[in-house]
From TrEMBL:
Protein name: Amino acid transporter transmembrane domain-containing protein
Keyword tRNA processing annotated: no
Sequence similarity: Belongs to the amino acid/polyamine transporter 2 family.
Keywords assigned: Membrane, Transmembrane, Transmembrane helix
Cross-referenced InterPro entries: AA_transpt_TM
PANTHER family in alphabetical order: AMINO ACID TRANSPORTER, AMINO ACID TRANSPORTER (EUROFUNG)
Principal location listed in the UniProt entry: membrane
Transmembrane segments: 53-74, 80-104, 131-154, 160-179, 191-213, 242-263, 275-297, 317-336, 357-378, 390-410, 422-445
Superkingdom of the source species: Eukaryota
Amino acid sequence: MSVHESSNAEKEHLDDDRLDEELAIKPTQTAQTAHHDVVFGEITDEGPNYRNVGFLGTVILMMKSQIGLGILSIPSAFNALGMVPGVIVLCGVAAITTWSDYVIGRFKLNHREVYGIDDAAALMFGPIGRWFLSVVFCLYYIFVSASGILGLSIGLNAVSTHGLCTVIFAVIAAILGFATASVRTLGRITWLAWVGLPCVIISVMIVTIAVSLQDRPSSAPKGDGPWTSDFKIVGSPTFVEGITGVSNLVFAFSGTPGFFAIVSEMRNPRQFTPALLICQATVTSIYLIVACIIYYYCGSYVSSPALGSAGGLVKQISYGIALPGLVVTTTIVTHIPAKYMFVHILRGSRHLTSNSFIHWITWLSCTLGVTVIAYIIASTIPAFDALVSLIGALLGTILCLQPYGCMWLYDNWSTGREKKSWWLMVSLSFFVVAFGSFVTVGGTYGTVIGIMDSYKASGGASAFSCADNSNST
């Protein structure tokens, strides 16, 4: 190595060390050792510490952002696609979204002023890009919050055997979501994720074991003779069914846009990539195990959400255990858009990191606004599968796929063209943009057709209905 190359390497190493010092926020800081964050401003003991999420906290928040409502719709996606295509598409979506998530971590290190996907869009596309992705981001998380409220109302119906009108259960779910989402920092929500994640995983595993032991799924035809699952190795879906299934799988990995907020509140953002790899490997493994077993034993009689597949007592037990996890999911997906709006309203103001009246009234207005709109959506589109598909297709793809190909190109277009890896990454970036655009258009079309068919079947009576919503298949 030449002297010039050696000096450059030493300079890069020193720059990295300096960047680590600037990025890292120690958990024991006091007001006398305040640090300035590019996004949040001065962080002291006089206000909330927005940079207090450690490595394990990052892993658990990522996993809880991914494992939630999405896992409950994967078996029904396999029913549309077939076992083998379902596994292939699931692994493909996992790989693509893992790359997208990796790009978020690198982009944050390169552009520390970025807090959300709209900041990245502003760098790449200017004010129009910021405005467009701001709207998409807020709509997406409000819709996901709606699916959380809907999932909670289904769980409450299942546990109580429809003890109250579904509209009332949705109100209870919305109140729970608002109360817990109003905790101001992700660092203080982390402990909820430690509780909620095991609850969802255990409940799904109970159903997975139960369907493998029972005679037949709860919705299968009753009879005295043996029942054989009608699962398909390769499905033969229509375009609408197939693209809806793909949209469901995209939704299962659609925690991606929330990772901007998580990396922004990490004490050391350089730990983002190893935390991401642990999260995605674990999440994908759980998805594959659960989806393959439940679909293998239930076939076309799999329920959506999947927790209802075993029926009877198992259904009540699984939903009972899952309820804390569903509350935590609703908490996180309500907190993230509320925090996004809150930061953008007060960014650059002393009220962002203080305990002033303006700080509190702005924060609670954001959480309440998200909750109210989400409740209305959950009551208007009460079919879980349809709502999940619509979110995944119309909004999830735009926030999980296309922007990250553009972000990689923005940071790397002018450097490294002499390397084969550069050409490979350019091709991957363009593929992700093209694939995401196809699923956005096709999936939205298929989902809207499905929702219209559902309304025709019910005569429009399903909106704001008191009927039990825990028995859908």
